[in-house]
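YM 10:42: Transcriptional regulator sequence, as discussed on the call
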Amino acid sequence: MKSMPTLSMPSGALILLILRVLRSGSLHGYAVAQRIHVLSSETLQVEEGVLYPTLQKMLLKGWVTAEWGVSETNRKVRFYSLTTAGRKQLQAQQADFDRVTEAIQTILRTA
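YM 10:58: structure's back
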């Protein structure tokens, strides 16, 4: 059986998925990307060239904080954590995503 190829992350969904993954606790950047990949049944692939600029934007907006630490492979990494503002942003983006998804599904069923 042929395996499904991994897909690049749609840019509009990346912030939502990062916020959701960080809701469970702080992670370093590579772990965020891996968690998204695993939770998507290895369908979604987050490229480093998109992940780290997105995390930086999220830091500037106050949705996440970052602290230096040591990874499980003994490397110096930044651990990202969700802030109160990030939790509010997650709720808002989840509601928007749900409305858009419902609208698309309605069109697909009825068109």
